[in-house]
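Session log. Operator J.P. requested a structure for one protein chain; no other inputs attached. Running the standard single-chain path with token output.
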Amino acid sequence: MATETAIRVSLTDDFVQSVVNTVKPHWGELGWVTYKRTYARWIDSKGRTENWDETVKRVVEGNINLDPRLHTDEIDPDVYAELTDEAQQLFKLVYGLAATPSGRNLWISGSDYQKRNGDALNNCWFVAVRPQAYGHSHIVPWYLSEKTVAPSMPFSFMFDQLMKGGGVGFSVAAENVNQMPAVDNRIDLAVIIDKSSKAYDESIAAGAVDRDAWLAANNIDDALSYRLPDTREGWVEANAALIDAHFNGTNPSGVTTLVLDISDIRERGAKIHGFGGTASGPAPLVEMLGDINGVLNDAVGRKLTSVDATDIGNLIGKTVVAGNVRRSAEIALGGADDSAFITMKQDKDKLYHHRWASNNSVLVTSSFTGYDEVAAAIAENGEPGMVNLELARNYGRIADGRQEGIDAEVEGTNPCGEISLANGEPCNLFEVFPVIAEQQGWNLHAAFRLAARYTKRVTFSNYDWEISRNVIEKNRRIGVSMSGIQDWILSRFGHRVVTGYEDATDPETGAAIKKPIYDQEAVKAFDGLYKGVVAADKEYSKQLHCNESIKHTTVKPSGTVSKLAGVSEGMHFHYSNYLIQRIRFQDSDPVLDALKACGYNIEPDIYSKNTMCVEFPVRAEHADSPDFASAGTVSIAEQFATQAFLQTYWADNSVSCTVTFQPDSETDEIAPLFNQYRNIIKSTSLLPYSGAGYQQAPKEPFSKEDYKKMRAQLHGDVAKKFNELHPADVKDLEIVDQTDCASGACPVK
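Structure written below.
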């Protein structure tokens, strides 16, 4: 039996310093400030946040020591030496910003929180909304056994993962929601709080009642009751108790009064020691419990609908966001013929109250024929997105042909759509920036090999939920991605990957189509890199005596991580060749002093209190190339074709892409392009291109001349200026709108 060992692979100070002296990180225009306020953890002993070399050391050591061969009674010296060398190579790769693990890993890996919550290394999760057993998990409500199949379980999984900072995809397709039993009981809910609580006034205003007054008027022995501990698990179990009380199968006593005592929950603004940040107080929980009870009480005597289940998920997501303590990311997946689900956001009152909390997509097969209706909805409000489960279950890369049931247990996807997932499964990401890696002298196959091994080790984390442990051990799914794809293609091949189109006929429908012509050197390059990742996984899986990964490669949308290195996001084209990028900071952030001293334009945010908006001039890679294309100029047809290229030759998982379209001229092309690529693209979403559509937009295109003028106003190095002005940093500050992906779907913290 394996035992924990005190021997750990570590990077020596001398080695780290040697890399710092010889490798220059490829910071983008926004790179250092984004890093400092998104990924640099607080060091108590030094009274400041980490420097980049300290972050990378923490992250690499946290990952390399997940190798199970280091957790045995006797460690092979050759294995230890091999892993030490690998840790050094990883440090060089990430320190130079030629590659990075996901933003979640940059924040969590190597921290004390990782040791307690292995789930936190994974960005996003998927769960099917149907009754399930909790199993041998860290959360099992006190009134249930591990084997009890409970309606609350998928919502508990969702709530738990969202509060850990992960995003969650959830399926409310008919085959799942129809398994929910009819709602039996109308529940009289009382959320009580003691006058001694510092959160008393806020909680009463949110709908709680005075504890003493309630106890004086009622007999608590006649009710179901629970006093919440001041923990994440306490919030989850309280919500589970509320949901399960409505069903006779999980409330055999038939008691219809539920009392939840929140007196022990810390007040708003109190420090959260494990994950960092400050507490929201119990008021958002009080509101959520009341709202969810309302949804369930309204459903007494019938089964929950897909809309009911989505509402519960959205109310949970809204609560996690409350107080700006956590980001929440959700994608709700419903049936393509479920008109109530598809149109649920047309209820503007509920949209503004909670339905904004998820992006909504529909699940289709390649035989789906309703793209005209879907396209009309997309043209109006940018939803729904599309997820093709048939392709996800039966294909890796499209170039490798149909492989029946290769990923048969897939039921949904993560919020950004780049990884198709089974019930309880997470995405597991690492991305390489090929254009930077080559500039820094890396052999790309070596860089991608390191990426594959990094993600493989993440699958050996200590996962909290039994459903997750089981599916991860079986699938060992990894997601090796690349970002700055458009930059690399122009740099490596001299032009975009789509070199033209030829007239063709759809063999199934007979429709005339424009078939894209791809650069064949690019085909060979992407194909070779993919096969290298698969070979690296095969080699490492044999060493670790575990299953080979069911799938290996993806294109994540990227966001904050790509800003570090200053590359284009995922497969997306740059927003513009020259642009103003606006980033928001808390107004107390000392980084603002350094930015002001270096000449950056800073103004109060017009949308949020206590927030400042900083303008950064950004020049895209190859901005002046005649073959450069931006999101505002590239056609919708080329974007579809580029996504299809990557799904065919690179990604055996999926390719995350938000296709931008010109609302005045390209809406008629949406349905035909969906039809043309129905057998190739596994998931996609679309949004109209807005340009500089509103004040203080996150991205605003502007001219080369204006870019030069703004750049001329800047002087000095922000990092050096910050260290001069603030030798002591401030704890618990962050960029207000940071996220781990381009669409804002995946949170970091």
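Operator note: The chain has a mean pLDDT of 92.
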